[in-house]
Design a protein that fits this description.
Layout lengths: L17 E4 H9 L1 H8 L8 H19 L7 H20 L6 H15 L7 E13 L2 E13 L2 E8 L7 H15 L5 E6 L5 E4 L3 H24 L21 H10 L2
Parallel strand pairs: 1-3, 4-5
Antiparallel strand pairs: 2-3, 3-4, 5-6
Helix pairs in contact: 1-2, 1-6, 3-4, 3-5, 6-7
Length: 261
Protein backbone atom coordinates (compact mmCIF):
# COMPACT_ATOMS: atom_id res chain seq x y z
CA UNK A 1 0.00 0.00 0.00
CA UNK A 2 1.51 3.39 -1.00
CA UNK A 3 2.77 5.55 1.84
CA UNK A 4 0.49 8.27 3.13
CA UNK A 5 1.69 10.95 3.10
CA UNK A 6 4.06 10.17 0.22
CA UNK A 7 7.74 9.93 1.13
CA UNK A 8 9.92 12.87 0.18
CA UNK A 9 13.70 12.84 0.56
CA UNK A 10 14.99 15.95 2.37
CA UNK A 11 16.67 18.68 0.29
CA UNK A 12 20.46 18.55 0.11
CA UNK A 13 23.09 21.08 -0.86
CA UNK A 14 24.18 21.05 -4.49
CA UNK A 15 27.58 19.58 -5.17
CA UNK A 16 29.66 16.93 -6.87
CA UNK A 17 27.97 13.61 -7.74
CA UNK A 18 28.10 11.27 -4.77
CA UNK A 19 27.41 7.56 -4.35
CA UNK A 20 26.65 6.58 -0.77
CA UNK A 21 26.64 2.85 -0.06
CA UNK A 22 25.24 1.15 3.02
CA UNK A 23 28.75 0.38 4.31
CA UNK A 24 29.92 3.97 3.83
CA UNK A 25 26.84 5.30 5.60
CA UNK A 26 27.52 2.97 8.53
CA UNK A 27 31.10 4.27 8.58
CA UNK A 28 29.82 7.85 8.61
CA UNK A 29 27.56 7.15 11.58
CA UNK A 30 30.59 5.80 13.46
CA UNK A 31 33.27 8.20 12.28
CA UNK A 32 32.57 10.81 9.56
CA UNK A 33 36.24 11.13 8.56
CA UNK A 34 36.53 7.37 8.07
CA UNK A 35 33.59 7.58 5.65
CA UNK A 36 35.25 10.49 3.86
CA UNK A 37 38.34 8.32 3.47
CA UNK A 38 36.23 5.57 1.89
CA UNK A 39 34.77 8.13 -0.51
CA UNK A 40 38.34 9.06 -1.51
CA UNK A 41 39.03 5.39 -2.24
CA UNK A 42 41.10 4.72 0.87
CA UNK A 43 40.35 1.19 2.02
CA UNK A 44 42.12 -1.10 4.42
CA UNK A 45 43.80 -4.31 3.27
CA UNK A 46 41.78 -7.44 2.65
CA UNK A 47 41.44 -9.56 5.78
CA UNK A 48 40.92 -13.26 6.27
CA UNK A 49 37.69 -12.83 8.30
CA UNK A 50 36.28 -10.56 5.60
CA UNK A 51 37.19 -13.09 2.90
CA UNK A 52 35.63 -15.96 4.85
CA UNK A 53 32.52 -13.87 5.44
CA UNK A 54 32.24 -12.91 1.78
CA UNK A 55 32.59 -16.52 0.65
CA UNK A 56 30.05 -17.69 3.24
CA UNK A 57 27.56 -15.10 1.95
CA UNK A 58 27.98 -16.45 -1.57
CA UNK A 59 27.29 -19.99 -0.29
CA UNK A 60 24.22 -18.81 1.63
CA UNK A 61 22.87 -17.13 -1.52
CA UNK A 62 23.53 -20.26 -3.58
CA UNK A 63 21.63 -22.33 -1.02
CA UNK A 64 18.64 -19.99 -1.13
CA UNK A 65 18.55 -19.80 -4.91
CA UNK A 66 19.38 -23.40 -5.84
CA UNK A 67 18.80 -25.57 -2.78
CA UNK A 68 20.90 -27.25 -0.14
CA UNK A 69 24.52 -28.03 -1.00
CA UNK A 70 25.61 -31.55 -0.13
CA UNK A 71 28.60 -31.85 2.19
CA UNK A 72 30.55 -33.64 -0.55
CA UNK A 73 29.92 -30.75 -2.97
CA UNK A 74 30.63 -27.82 -0.67
CA UNK A 75 34.37 -27.54 -1.40
CA UNK A 76 33.80 -27.43 -5.15
CA UNK A 77 30.98 -24.90 -4.68
CA UNK A 78 33.35 -22.68 -2.67
CA UNK A 79 36.02 -22.92 -5.35
CA UNK A 80 33.48 -22.03 -8.04
CA UNK A 81 32.41 -18.93 -6.10
CA UNK A 82 36.03 -17.88 -5.59
CA UNK A 83 36.82 -18.36 -9.25
CA UNK A 84 33.68 -16.52 -10.29
CA UNK A 85 34.07 -13.26 -8.38
CA UNK A 86 36.61 -13.50 -5.55
CA UNK A 87 39.94 -14.26 -7.21
CA UNK A 88 41.21 -10.71 -6.80
CA UNK A 89 40.42 -10.73 -3.08
CA UNK A 90 42.14 -14.09 -2.71
CA UNK A 91 45.25 -12.73 -4.41
CA UNK A 92 45.18 -9.58 -2.27
CA UNK A 93 44.95 -11.71 0.85
CA UNK A 94 48.02 -13.69 -0.20
CA UNK A 95 46.57 -17.07 0.71
CA UNK A 96 48.43 -20.03 -0.72
CA UNK A 97 46.38 -22.82 -2.34
CA UNK A 98 47.40 -25.09 0.53
CA UNK A 99 45.74 -22.68 2.99
CA UNK A 100 42.43 -22.58 1.15
CA UNK A 101 41.17 -25.83 2.69
CA UNK A 102 41.14 -24.20 6.15
CA UNK A 103 39.06 -21.32 4.77
CA UNK A 104 36.59 -23.75 3.19
CA UNK A 105 36.37 -25.68 6.45
CA UNK A 106 35.47 -22.48 8.29
CA UNK A 107 32.82 -21.65 5.69
CA UNK A 108 31.46 -25.19 6.05
CA UNK A 109 30.97 -24.62 9.79
CA UNK A 110 29.07 -21.39 9.12
CA UNK A 111 26.98 -23.11 6.46
CA UNK A 112 25.94 -25.85 8.89
CA UNK A 113 24.65 -23.16 11.26
CA UNK A 114 22.98 -21.28 8.41
CA UNK A 115 20.93 -24.35 7.49
CA UNK A 116 19.22 -24.23 10.90
CA UNK A 117 17.79 -20.72 10.25
CA UNK A 118 14.24 -20.18 9.06
CA UNK A 119 14.07 -19.43 5.36
CA UNK A 120 10.41 -20.01 4.50
CA UNK A 121 8.89 -17.39 2.24
CA UNK A 122 12.15 -16.77 0.40
CA UNK A 123 11.78 -14.21 -2.38
CA UNK A 124 15.30 -13.06 -3.28
CA UNK A 125 18.99 -13.20 -2.33
CA UNK A 126 21.58 -10.45 -2.69
CA UNK A 127 18.83 -8.03 -3.71
CA UNK A 128 20.43 -4.90 -5.12
CA UNK A 129 18.73 -1.60 -4.27
CA UNK A 130 19.74 1.71 -5.86
CA UNK A 131 18.03 5.06 -6.12
CA UNK A 132 18.76 8.71 -6.87
CA UNK A 133 16.57 10.58 -4.38
CA UNK A 134 18.28 13.93 -5.05
CA UNK A 135 20.23 15.42 -7.92
CA UNK A 136 23.64 13.74 -8.13
CA UNK A 137 23.03 11.61 -5.03
CA UNK A 138 22.92 7.83 -5.51
CA UNK A 139 22.12 5.55 -2.58
CA UNK A 140 23.13 1.92 -2.99
CA UNK A 141 22.91 -1.29 -0.99
CA UNK A 142 22.45 -5.04 -1.31
CA UNK A 143 20.12 -6.89 1.05
CA UNK A 144 21.33 -10.41 1.80
CA UNK A 145 17.84 -11.91 1.63
CA UNK A 146 14.19 -10.92 1.26
CA UNK A 147 11.39 -13.09 2.63
CA UNK A 148 7.61 -12.81 2.49
CA UNK A 149 6.26 -11.77 5.87
CA UNK A 150 2.72 -11.18 7.12
CA UNK A 151 1.78 -7.79 5.79
CA UNK A 152 4.85 -7.32 3.58
CA UNK A 153 8.47 -8.45 3.46
CA UNK A 154 11.28 -9.26 5.89
CA UNK A 155 14.73 -7.87 5.02
CA UNK A 156 17.59 -9.93 6.47
CA UNK A 157 21.28 -9.21 6.83
CA UNK A 158 23.52 -12.18 7.68
CA UNK A 159 26.57 -11.60 9.88
CA UNK A 160 29.40 -14.13 9.97
CA UNK A 161 31.00 -12.62 13.07
CA UNK A 162 29.55 -10.97 16.15
CA UNK A 163 26.28 -9.15 15.60
CA UNK A 164 27.60 -5.77 16.72
CA UNK A 165 25.23 -2.84 16.24
CA UNK A 166 23.31 -3.38 12.98
CA UNK A 167 20.75 -0.60 13.45
CA UNK A 168 22.24 1.95 11.04
CA UNK A 169 22.68 -0.60 8.26
CA UNK A 170 19.17 -1.99 8.66
CA UNK A 171 17.71 1.53 8.74
CA UNK A 172 19.59 2.39 5.52
CA UNK A 173 18.18 -0.72 3.79
CA UNK A 174 14.71 0.24 4.99
CA UNK A 175 15.09 3.70 3.49
CA UNK A 176 16.27 2.26 0.18
CA UNK A 177 13.32 -0.16 0.13
CA UNK A 178 10.86 2.67 0.77
CA UNK A 179 12.33 4.87 -1.96
CA UNK A 180 12.32 2.05 -4.52
CA UNK A 181 9.17 0.13 -3.53
CA UNK A 182 7.05 2.86 -1.90
CA UNK A 183 6.32 0.59 1.08
CA UNK A 184 7.79 0.00 4.51
CA UNK A 185 9.10 -3.55 5.16
CA UNK A 186 7.13 -5.52 7.74
CA UNK A 187 10.33 -6.54 9.54
CA UNK A 188 14.06 -5.85 9.35
CA UNK A 189 16.44 -8.36 10.87
CA UNK A 190 20.15 -8.98 11.39
CA UNK A 191 21.32 -12.48 12.34
CA UNK A 192 24.79 -13.63 13.35
CA UNK A 193 25.18 -17.05 11.80
CA UNK A 194 28.26 -17.59 13.97
CA UNK A 195 26.88 -16.69 17.40
CA UNK A 196 23.11 -17.00 16.99
CA UNK A 197 22.57 -13.37 18.02
CA UNK A 198 19.57 -11.71 16.43
CA UNK A 199 18.18 -8.19 16.13
CA UNK A 200 14.62 -7.65 14.89
CA UNK A 201 12.81 -4.37 14.35
CA UNK A 202 9.38 -3.52 13.02
CA UNK A 203 10.28 -0.37 11.07
CA UNK A 204 8.08 2.70 11.33
CA UNK A 205 7.51 5.77 9.22
CA UNK A 206 9.36 7.73 11.92
CA UNK A 207 12.44 5.50 11.42
CA UNK A 208 12.31 6.06 7.65
CA UNK A 209 11.99 9.84 7.98
CA UNK A 210 14.73 10.06 10.64
CA UNK A 211 17.10 7.94 8.53
CA UNK A 212 16.42 10.10 5.48
CA UNK A 213 17.37 13.20 7.49
CA UNK A 214 20.57 11.52 8.73
CA UNK A 215 21.51 10.38 5.22
CA UNK A 216 20.87 13.86 3.81
CA UNK A 217 23.04 15.34 6.57
CA UNK A 218 25.82 12.88 5.68
CA UNK A 219 25.61 13.94 2.03
CA UNK A 220 25.82 17.63 3.00
CA UNK A 221 28.79 17.04 5.31
CA UNK A 222 30.71 14.99 2.73
CA UNK A 223 30.10 17.54 -0.03
CA UNK A 224 31.08 20.39 2.28
CA UNK A 225 34.36 18.67 3.15
CA UNK A 226 35.12 18.23 -0.54
CA UNK A 227 34.42 21.90 -1.25
CA UNK A 228 36.51 23.15 1.66
CA UNK A 229 39.25 20.53 1.56
CA UNK A 230 38.83 20.13 5.29
CA UNK A 231 38.41 17.08 7.51
CA UNK A 232 35.29 15.80 9.21
CA UNK A 233 34.92 14.73 12.84
CA UNK A 234 36.99 11.75 13.96
CA UNK A 235 35.23 9.52 16.49
CA UNK A 236 37.26 6.76 18.10
CA UNK A 237 35.91 3.27 18.79
CA UNK A 238 36.47 -0.44 18.10
CA UNK A 239 36.20 0.24 14.36
CA UNK A 240 39.51 2.13 14.50
CA UNK A 241 41.44 -1.16 14.58
CA UNK A 242 40.70 -1.76 10.87
CA UNK A 243 40.60 1.86 9.71
CA UNK A 244 42.95 2.65 6.78
CA UNK A 245 43.41 6.16 8.24
CA UNK A 246 44.78 4.84 11.53
CA UNK A 247 48.41 5.86 10.86
CA UNK A 248 47.40 9.52 10.59
CA UNK A 249 44.78 9.57 13.36
CA UNK A 250 45.86 10.16 16.96
CA UNK A 251 42.32 9.50 18.25
CA UNK A 252 42.21 6.13 16.52
CA UNK A 253 45.70 5.16 17.68
CA UNK A 254 44.77 5.97 21.29
CA UNK A 255 41.58 3.87 20.95
CA UNK A 256 43.53 0.88 19.61
CA UNK A 257 46.08 1.18 22.41
CA UNK A 258 43.24 1.15 24.92
CA UNK A 259 41.60 -1.86 23.26
CA UNK A 260 44.92 -3.72 23.33
CA UNK A 261 45.22 -3.05 27.06
Amino acid sequence: MPLDPPFRFPPVAAGEPLVLSASTYVSFERCPEQAAGRMRGTYGPESRPAFVGGLAHRIFARHLKSGEIADADLASACREEIGGSMNQKLAALGLKPSQLSAVIEEVAGLYQRFKTLRTEGFEGAEVALESEPADGVVLRGSVDAVFAEDGGVRLVDWKTGALGDPDAQLAFYTLLWVIEKDEIPALIEAVSVKTGERSETVPSRALVDDTAVRVASAVDALRSSWDSGGSLDRIAGPWCRWCPLLDECSEGAAAVDLLDG
